[in-house]
Design a protein that fits this description.
The structure is a single chain. With about 550 residues, the chain is an alpha/beta fold. It contains eleven helices and 17 strands. The strands form four sheets. Strands 1, 2, 6, 7, 8, 9 and 17 form a seven-stranded mixed β-sheet that branches. The chain has a four-stranded mixed β-sheet with strand order 4-3-15-14, covered by helices on one side. It has a three-stranded antiparallel β-sheet with strand order 5-11-12, with helices on one face. The mean pLDDT is about 95.
């Protein structure tokens, strides 16, 4: 069924899409915001560890949790297999209002200036599509600031000598260190490093009419019980709806974008909550469905001028899938380092190794962990320790409160063959061709990870750990398990990118992307604040250039 035409359809109510919807609605454009998930709160899942904290034992608490959302991944022998959201190689992706910002750890990092100029900084890397962004840190800095103040970030960059320049301080003070934070502060200073408090999208004081953090251990992977964690679901999306110009439609599954013969986007086909096919015509469309689902929608939207999918005449849609190769080290201590009321746990970091590592490209920040709940702790064992039976139980009891980590997200090298594409046979329950994932990380990621994990182990030993071991990322299978990015990269050349510097798909003036798909590289940090800044950046361009029915 065709509905009344609106100015804008935004697909995906996550970090980028929620911001774009609010910005355009406040600018006077009528907006339909499509979200395949629903509104969810802490009460929906409570403190159930088996369905939260990204353990995927019983499915994803805030992601697709049934067989309707199957995917396909490549096996080591080249064959393919179907995976469900409860399986680890499905890769984490949210399906709720707010997207991942409802249950994330909420680290609020700005990328460093070098992160936008990786090729200029380091040169070419064989086997990688390493490149510069078409925008600089200076371009994005005002939009980082806007995200920090509108969404709400606590922090203190004055303590971080590696912090990029900023015009305005964080709106809320940094959180104090917990027990292992204080321990790591002392150890890193003794080693000559530069510890500082992690910037967080959480209220350290009352802010935006919501309370300050109550420091529960059920934080990362869970919704906040008092709404002190800041995501788009409790900031910009309500503001968008309050304008009266934004309609949020939950339980909607976008299937394809309609185009005319001249290549103009006309609207979005989707299935509503009742499973009925709908068609929403619009003047312009913004896709912000994640770095796996956004390319899927574009590839499922062929047209006369783009027979291989929207924006895909040069075969770049779905390419360069990146995540983060988490690495670091774990340690056991002779005394308790766990603090039950020190949630969320992560509070201190160093950026001494994000760049400037001899012979290496990029690096990673390192920080203390979020509180590791008991089931997840059962995965963390030194080499040779039993994972079942009596000895397993004894280890669990003895070391749960004497265990901690120091780790971070290695900036992966983009690889052309690491990709999202459509499976030729498998479809979801709506009959939409599903995506399949393939590719392998670049070998250089392992070199960086070896270096970073050695530095992390050094810190743990300095802190007094009696036993340590490195945590290295895997070498096989596609990346994107967390912090998916890169699959519709922005660039000045249509032959090697999907959008221009404003997220506008090359040759399709009224189609935009506004999520981590745009990232050319993914930094050595959690990327959500950059996604938010890009949401403001894309929306700002649309507001300035949109002239009623077309762009000037």
């Amino acid at each position: 069924m065709s509905l009344d035409k609106v100015n804008t359809v935004v697909v995906g109510a996550g970090a980028g899409g929620g911001i774009v919807a609010k910005e355009l609605a406040e600018a006077g454009l009528s907006v339909v915001l499509l979200e395949r998930g629903r509104w969810q709160t802490f009460d929906d899942h409570g403190t159930d560890e088996l369905i939260s904290q990204r353990t995927t034992v019983l499915g994803n608490a805030f992601g697709p949790d049934d067989e309707r959302h199957r995917r396909v991944v490549r096996n080591d022998d080249g064959s393919w297999r179907v995976v469900l959201p409860s399986q680890w190689d499905y890769n984490n992706v949210a399906a709720c209002v707010g997207g991942g910002t409802l249950s994330y750890g909420a680290m609020a990092w700005r990328f460093m200036p070098q992160d936008f100029k990786m090729r200029s900084t380091y040169g070419d890397l064989a086997g990688s599509t390493l490149d510069d962004w078409p925008i600089s840190y200076d371009d994005l800095e005002p939009f980082y600031e806007k995200a920090e103040w509108e969404i709400g970030v606590s922090g203190d960059d004055s303590q971080n000598p590696f912090a990029p320049p900023r015009r305005k301080a964080h709106p809320m003070p940094a959180f104090e260190y917990n027990r292992d934070g204080k321990m790591f502060e002392e150890a890193t200073r003794r080693l000559g490093y530069h510890p500082f408090p992690i910037p967080m999208l959480r209220n350290s004081v009352d802010y935006n009419d919501r309370p300050s953090c109550m420091h529960v251990r059920h934080c990362v992977g869970f919704a906040c019980p008092i709404d002190a964690k800041n995501g788009t679901q409790n900031t910009v999306i309500p503001k968008a709806i309050d304008t009266g110009l934004c309609q949020l439609r939950t339980g909607t599954m976008a299937s394809r974008i309609e185009f005319d013969d001249q290549g103009k986007a006309l609207g979005v086909h989707y299935f509503d909550e009742a499973g009925q096919a709908q068609y929403q015509p619009a003047d312009l469309i913004v896709v912000a469905a994640s770095a796996t689902e956004t390319p899927r929608l574009l590839l499922n939207s062929p047209s006369k001028l783009f027979p291989n999918g929207a924006g895909n005449n040069n075969d770049w849609v779905g390419r360069n899938l990146q995540g983060h190769a988490y690495t670091g080290a774990s340690g056991l201590f002779p005394h308790e380092v766990y603090e039950d009321e020190g949630g969320p746990g992560a509070c201190i970091a160093i950026c001494d190794f994000n760049h400037g590592n001899e012979g290496l490209i990029g690096g990673a920040m390192l920080c203390n962990p979020f509180i590791t709940l008991p089931y997840l702790f059962s995965r963390y064992r030194p080499p040779g320790e039993s994972r079942w039976g009596l000895s397993h139980k004894q280890y669990q009891r003895e070391y749960y409160k004497k265990f901690t980590m120091f780790r971070g997200p290695v900036q992966e090298m983009p690889v052309y063959e690491s990709r999202v594409e459509l499976d030729p046979e498998v479809k979801d329950d709506w009959g939409i061709p599903t995506l399949r994932l393939s590719g392998n990380p670049h070998p250089h990621d392992q070199e960086i990870a070896q270096f970073i994990s050695a530095r992390a182990e050094e810190v743990l030993k300095e802190a007094g750990a009696i036993r340590t071991w490195k945590n290295m990322p895997g070498t096989g299978g596609p990346s994107g398990g967390q912090h998916q990015a890169g699959t519709c990269r922005m660039g000045d050349d249509p032959k090697s990118s999907v959008t221009n510097r404003y997220g506008q798909v090359h040759e399709i003036d009224n189609l935009f992307v506004a999520d981590a798909s745009l990232h050319v590289t993914n930094g050595g940090f959690n990327p959500v604040l950059t996604i938010m800044a890009l949401g403001y950046w894309v929306a700002d361009y649309i507001k300035k250039e949109w002239k009623g029915t077309q762009f000037k």
